[in-house]
Amino acid sequence: MTAATIPTSPRRRPAIATIAAAGLGCAWLAARTSIAPDIPFPTATLVVGFVVLAVAGLVLAVPVEAAPAHHLPAAVVLAAGVGAFAAARALGDGHAPSGLTLGAVALNTLAAVSEEIWFRRVVYGWLAPAGPVVATLGAAALFAAVHVPRYGTWVLPVDLAAGVLLGWQRRTTGSWKVPAVTHAVADLLVLL
Amino acid sequence: MPGRTSGRVPSRRRLLLAGLGAVLAYLLVATMLTSGPVRPLFDGFAPPPEYRWLVPPPAFAAGNTPPEGVRTTIALGPDGSAARGVSTPDGQVVLTFGTGAIAPHGGDRSVRVSVTPVDGNRLRALPRGLRPNGNAYRLALTYAPSGDPVTELAKPGTLVLTVPELGWALYRDDGSAWQEVSAQPVPPRGVDLTAQLTAPGDYLDGTDLPLPPGPDPTTTDNAGWIALGIGVAAVLLIGAALLVARRRRRARISASAEIPDPVPASPGHPSDS
């Protein structure tokens, strides 16, 4: 048992504080888009916020999940996800207002990795006791929901479908790292 | 295995099929079920500052704050104008004039500077089929007290123009046609264009990109409540998942407790079977 995992025994009560922290993290991700214009040094504040989110996501305890007896190579899973996002970029003609700059890439990568640690490690991990379908769909639903305050409800289908794809990567590899790389690449594609 | 969240062991084939389904579903949603330009993912670090439209597109009309112009004066001496920076209050236009940027003019003692936002769609069409990218800005320089216009700068200044999204070309209308102005995007976002300022006129950036999707005014106005709701939903969802898992665990424990352990047959005592 690692330091950041807990066994789920009938006698072990759920970590209320960890679940509450998961809720707070999701609420912060949803609220950041509305508070950013009103806070001093918004970029620095958001950088700190994402770093705190990532660190908290790595140290928070999550239930131990049984690794699948059969799994796919990480490279294959990564290629499938990146390929899907690349195809969507080519076909959807959508792009971010800002250009491909080092700062934009760095900030978007930080956001992508932090969110994957949060959704595909913490949220997925705490939903996993109910089964992989619940974990995948639940994490994807929360991932899509936190982006509604900024973009509107019309992006729910796209972000939900993307979240399911990232959740499949999480389930198939047993780790948040492949979804994190995929998410970072997807954010990079948006800037191109 | 005690302490583990066990479930059915998925086969490799099942995992592959699930992945194929996820990919296809995503591509279907991203390309066919959503109208307008669609990004691979609506995500990112943080939203850019809201652009101030003079005539906002429909998607940006709700919550739009009109842009502001500026009127000011620059002192004019025998050697020309004093060094001066001029900016609209909203920061969407920033001008920098160096010492002597405007030549002396007879008995005039100052230059009136006027920057006024203009609807680019009401100006002559941009070249190459480009569409106006944000507001046009009319820069006027007038000697005072004579009222004579400044037609060009004696020394170039700089212009920084904020645009709503990536633009391909900055133009200046010299009164007869659009002239392209060499401009560079300013990091980190690239939607601030910097160019050499050589003369007054109408300045407008052009782009051939589709309009970016606008924010939903309903959701942005209620962002705080939405965030709270999402946080509560996360807590409830995880709590429900753990409750389900606990019940399943108890059911498995109860089921295993009802199965009696077989009694091993001892030597010399025949078994019942």
- Work out the helix count of chain B: 4
**Mean pLDDT across all residues of chain B, rounded?**
82
What is the subunit organization of this protein? heterodimer
> Which protein chains make the most extensive interface, counting residues with beta carbons within 8 Å of the other chain's beta carbons?
A-B, 106 and 83 residues
The structural class of chain B is alpha+beta
Helix content of chain B: 10-25%
What radius of gyration of chain A results from the CA coordinates?
17 Å
Q: What's the CATH class of the largest domain in chain B, please? A: Mainly Beta
Strand order of the largest sheet of chain A: 1-2
Which residue ranges of chain B are poorly predicted, with pLDDT under 50 across at least 5 consecutive positions? Answer: 1-6, 268-273
**What is the number of domains of chain A?**
1
CATH architecture of the largest domain in chain B: Sandwich
Instruction: Kindly identify the CATH topology of the largest domain in chain B.
Output: Chondroitinase Ac, Chain A, domain 3
Q: Could you explain how this protein is built, in words?
A:
The complex is a heterodimer of chains A (192) and B (273). Chain A has 192 residues and is mainly alpha-helical. Chain A has one domain. In chain A, 70% of the residues lie in helices and 2% in strands. Chain A has helices at 16-35, 42-59, 74-92, 102-127, 132-145, 148-151, 156-173, 177-191; strands at 5-6, 62-63. Chain A has a two-stranded parallel sheet with strand order 1-2. In chain A, helix 7 (156-173) runs antiparallel to helix 8 (177-191). The longest helix of chain A has 26 residues, at 102-127. Chain A is globular. Mean pLDDT of chain A is 83; it is low at 6-11. Chain B has 273 residues and is α+β, with helices and mostly antiparallel strands. Chain B folds into two domains: 2-34 and 216-256; 65-207, Chondroitinase Ac, Chain A, domain 3. Chain B contains four helices and 13 strands. In chain B, the strands form two sheets. In chain B, strands 1, 2, 5, 6, 7, 9, 10 and 13 form an eight-stranded antiparallel β-sheet that branches. Chain B is elongated, with a radius of gyration of 34 Å. The two termini of chain B are 32 Å apart. In chain B, 33% of the residues are buried. Classes of the chains: A mainly alpha (192), B alpha+beta (273). At the A-B interface, helix 1, helix 2, helix 3, helix 4 and helix 5 of A face helix 1, helix 3 and helix 4 of B.
